[in-house]
Amino acid sequence: MSLYRDTAVVLRVQKLGEADRIITLLTRRYGKVRAVAKGVRRTTSRFGARVEPFCHVDVQLYTGRTLDVITQVQTVDAFGLHIVDDYQRYTSACAVLETVDRLAAEEGEPVLRLYLLAIGALRALAGRERDSSQVLDAFLLRAMSFAGWAPALSECARCGESGPHAAFNVQAGGAVCARCRPAGSVRPSAHTLPLMEALLQGDWGRAERAEQSVRREASGLIAAHLQWHMERQLRSLPLVERTVPELIRERAAEAALVGTAEDGR
User: Which of 103, 123, 171, 184 could form a disulfide with 258 if both were Cys (CB 3.0 to 4.6 A apart)?
Assistant: First the structure.
């Protein structure tokens, strides 16, 4: 039996038995860890409230046969206190945690950059100084960059020709020039891809000047790009996407259908 300690963000919780929970953590040094928190569902639990989603904690664990066991927890940042009472921020934070859980697929594999991205996104959502949709979009773009899926924005995804380009194709990998443009590509506003680039680079001054219609269009393209590469839909993301115009979702869906049909030929 060996003890170890690390800082972590709580990604999700599952009931175990009558009083325990399995806590999925993303730790700074050890990556994703699943551990048992014994007795946390009892009202007398010493640290039950500290192992809820969105919590940033200092946690001590010991190595078990199948699952590690949490022995001590101290709160570093109680992000949830400033997130759960705002629907838009709550759903955005849920999408952040679900994305992190999917991208950190291997338990015990260090993913420091993803950990720092998650903490930064939750801190920004809890701080309420920036639009929650833009915080989420910036996080998703940077998370895709971490995974190697960052969309091409300033050059053609196929031939590398410098832009700006008028078309965007999820299956091709982002912006595409007139020569490389596949069937089913969408033509976003001239300001949408520059906004996505600003979010990826952290240029908040430029991002916050974007009009709402441009922000919503960028959100639709980012969501479509992410879910195409993950090959599955995030359960929490549609709740956030209710603000996205129906037209954008239809265009993204049409592009995905065309790409699927072409792959099946």
Answer: 184
Q: What is the DSSP letter of 107?
A: B
- Average pLDDT for runs of 10 along the chain of length 265: 89 88 94 89 74 93 88 91 92 95 88 96 93 94 92 91 89 91 90 94 92 92 90 81 44 50 50
Q: What's the token pair of residue 236?
A: 């929490």
- Predicted TM-score (pTM) of this structure: 0.84
- On whether the CB atoms of residues 4 and 61 are closer than 8 A, the answer is yes
CA–CA gap between residue 114 and residue 103 (Å, rounded):
8
The phi-psi region of residue 224 (left if phi > 0; otherwise alpha if psi is between -120 and 50; otherwise beta) is: alpha
CB within 8 Å of 246: residues ≥ 6 apart: none
| Cβ count near 249 (within 10 Å) | 15
HEC states along 213-244? HHHHHHHHHHHHHHHHHHCCCCCCHHHHHHHC
Strand partners, 21: 15, 37
